[in-house]
Specification:
Blueprint: H1 21-62, H2 69-85, H3 88-97, H4 102-136, H5 138-143, H6 148-168, E1 170-175, E2 178-183, H7 191-223, H8 229-261, H9 267-271, H10 274-288, H11 290-301, H12 303-313, H13 320-330
Antiparallel strand pairs: 1-2
Helix pairs in contact: 1-2, 1-3, 1-10, 1-11, 2-4, 2-11, 4-6, 4-7, 7-8, 8-10, 8-11, 11-12, 12-13
Protein name: Chemokine XC receptor 1-like
Keywords: G-protein coupled receptor, Membrane, Receptor, Transducer, Transmembrane, Transmembrane helix
Main location: membrane
Length: 346
């Protein structure tokens, strides 16, 4: 079986390969961990992400003004998370029982997963740039407003373009009496090149932009007299650190694997090590947690979404005038308070 480090491979490094008897017992025990741990995590991520992003979708469609750029970009980010999330039950079954859904489903679900993954990165970067303009360049942001619908359509087309090869080159393969859903690029393109493109465009670029923008925003916040300055600093810290925790281990893993594919490091010995398999499982699972990150930050960190959550659960009952007054107070958030034009929402 061809070694594969892509986002959806369950057992690319031969956890269940043939070993001598003493080693076989150890590998079977580790194999159980490598199977059960992702299955449990994928199931947990699915329920948390589905609940959180569904609530965000409801709040944006029913309670928010989608004519605002920040709300519309958040809507697209939420849709990206949901596209990614709906594939998780299939991967949970995959890592425990192998691929049982055929090659068409393998191609379709891989395409959906990478579309959700790529679009998440792009819309998160777009939201960051929008907030940066509203906070650091408030005057310019109030006079120049890009066509957000055209921008969003362009980002979806861009991400779909990169997702189609992942779908086309996905196939099922049988190995050691088990069926796998893998990406097999064959002679069409070097596998390591795919990883370098993914790392550079869908990690290094967004991470650099996010880090730069939020660092500048942090200094801008520190210079202003704000009642919610500490809250804004905490939100910025959580956004940058959370992004790094979710995606840095996985992309470091891909980079090491790409070096192995090029023969720059001893790939065969490395891939057969327990540490490498353990690193793959943990980094792979952490990357999947990204779809929980956005709803948690926006619901727990933003006053207006907490207000929507209280309303949807029936915790409070307001008259129309009381509700309007309360929501207007809640929507005066940390970062939007910096923008004199009131365009930024977290």
């Amino acid at each position: 079986m061809e070694s594969n480090g892509t986002l959806t491979t369950a057992d690319p490094y031969g956890i269940y390969s043939d070993y001598d008897e003493p080693v076989l017992l150890e590998e079977n025990v580790l194999g159980i961990f490598f199977s059960i741990f992702p299955t449990v995590c994928y199931s947990l991520i699915f329920f948390v992400s589905l609940a959180g992003n569904s609530f965000l979708l409801w709040a944006l469609l029913k309670q928010e003004d989608l004519r605002q750029t920040s709300s519309l970009l958040l809507l697209h980010l939420t849709m990206s998370d949901l596209i990614f999330t709906v594939t998780l039950p299939f991967w949970a079954v995959y890592v425990s029982d192998g691929w049982v859904m055929g090659e068409v489903a393998c191609k379709l679900l891989n395409g959906m997963l990478f579309l959700g993954f790529y679009s998440y990165m792009m819309f998160l970067m777009a939201m960051t740039l929008h907030r940066y303009r509203a906070v650091v360049h408030a005057v310019t942001a109030s006079t120049f407003k890009p066509n957000v619908h055209l921008l969003s359509a362009g980002l979806w087309v861009f991400c779909l373009t990169f997702s189609i090869p992942e779908m086309v080159f996905s196939e099922t393969e049988e190995f050691n009496d088990a069926v796998y859903c893998i990406q097999s690029y064959g002679s069409h393109m070097p596998e390591y090149l795919v990883y370098y493109v993914q790392i550079s465009i869908f990690f290094l670029l967004p991470f650099s932009v996010i880090t730069f923008c939020y660092t500048r925003m942090w200094f801008r916040i520190r210079q202003c007299r704000m009642g919610k300055k500490n809250q804004a600093v905490r939100l910025i810290f959580l956004i940058v650190v959370g992004f790094f925790i979710c995606w840095a281990p996985y992309n470091i893993f891909l980079f090491i694997h790409a070096l192995g594919l090029q023969g720059l490091i001893p790939a065969e010995k490395l891939e057969q090590s327990v540490a490498f398999k353990f690193t793959y499982t943990i980094s792979h699972t952490l990357a999947y947690f990204h779809c929980c990150f956005s709803p948690i930050i926006h619901i727990l960190g933003a006053g207006k979404f907490r207000g929507h959550l209280n309303l949807s659960r029936g915790f409070r009952r307001f008259s129309v005038s009381q509700r309007t007054q309360t929501f207007s107070t809640h929507t005066s958030e940390a970062l939007s308070a910096l923008s004199m034009s009131g365009q930024t929402n977290i």
